[in-house]
Every structure is written in C-alpha cells, then in structure tokens.
Description:
The protein has helices at residues 11-20, 36-45, 65-72, 86-95, 108-119, 127-140, 142-147, 151-161, 166-173, 177-191, 196-202, and strands spanning 2-7, 27-33, 50-53, 77-82, 100-103. The longest helix is centred in the last third of the chain and has 15 residues, at 177-191. Helix 3 links the parallel strand 3 and strand 4 (77-82). The chain is elongated and about 75 Å long. It is α/β, with parallel strands linked by helices and 211 residues long.
Amino acid sequence: MIRVFIADAHPVVQEGLKAFFHNSKDISIVGKGLHYRDLTEHLHSKKADIVVLEIELPGFEEIRALRKLKDTYTSVKFLIFTSLSEEIYAISALKYGASGFLCKDSPMNIIKDAILKISAGGIYITSELAEHMAFNETATNPRVLINRLSEREIQVLRLLVNGKRNKDIAITLSISDKTVSTYRSRLMKKIKVKNLVEMLNKLQHIDLDMY
C-alpha cells in the first residue's frame, strides 16, 4: 500500500482526494495538512511514501525549499499538485527534487497514475512538458550546436579550446587577427555562451577532433 500525505491549503482538495482514494487497494491517505509545519511534523513522526504538495502551501516559502525537504526525508517522494503554471514552475520543481508535476485541473485518474508511477521509481510529467523539455535540450545540446558549425568555425573552436591566443590562431590558419575575433564572437553566440570560460566548461566532455 502506497502511503500518501496531502499538503494543501484547501480543504476541498484534501477531502476530494481522500474520498477518491477511500476504497483504493493501492493507495492510502495517511494524513493531510493545511500548513508546511503540518507536513514536517507528520514526516518527522510518522511515515509517508509520497507527498502531494501544493507549491503555495502556507509556510512553504519557495520552490527551492523542496531541496531541503528531499535532503531531510530522503525516502519520501514529492508530487507537485498546483494551480500554478506548469510551463513556469514544473522544470524548477523537478530540478529541486520533485518526482512529478500536475496541475489541479487534471482528472482524478491521472493523479492516481502519477502516484503509481512515482511509487515505482519513475518521474511523472505531462506529454506537453516532456516535449517542451526535449525541445529545450535539443536547442542547447553542445553536440547539436557543434554539428551546425562550418568547417572553419570548428577549426577556430578547436584551437580556442586548446588554449591558443587569437594571434596564434591567425598564424595557424593564415587569417587576420580581426577575422579570428569575428569567428570567436560568432562561436560564442552559436554555442550560447558569454565568455571563453563558459565555452570550455560546456565543451569539456566533447572530443572536437571527432568533428
């Protein structure tokens, strides 16, 4: 039986979820709280496998506080259940330790699916969020960005990563210092970094000799 604690400031949400899972063979509502301290008091003294957590729960100051919860109660998983925008808050919630994110307009059967998936060790997000995250990953993936560079740009990039100065690059490639500076600025923009240090960090695990 999956033990679930509901942390939500709205009694109607608490009672609705409790009623829905009343006869469930898989999920048991073991507690509910209207304030952050209700949640921490329960987790400190009793057991819960999953917390259905509203981001706007009184006392829960910011989404980053989720990291502290995860570090303190390492065996507990958190499903964010909120009326706030998925597009704005979901990625941050997952970053700070949530195992899932659902908006409150989700059907009850979706909430059950999310709890079951999280309990089994998975991450639950909507297909729309998954597509959004995949698009962002593709758009900023260093390997994807490098594949879009010209042969000359890769030559300049390889020399920059190897610690060569603009003057040395100019001599090696038989181009002017000004042209090297132009390539350098263009590479910063295409690889989406602000300076050479960021570029080195972003490309540290990539073998440019393969390109």
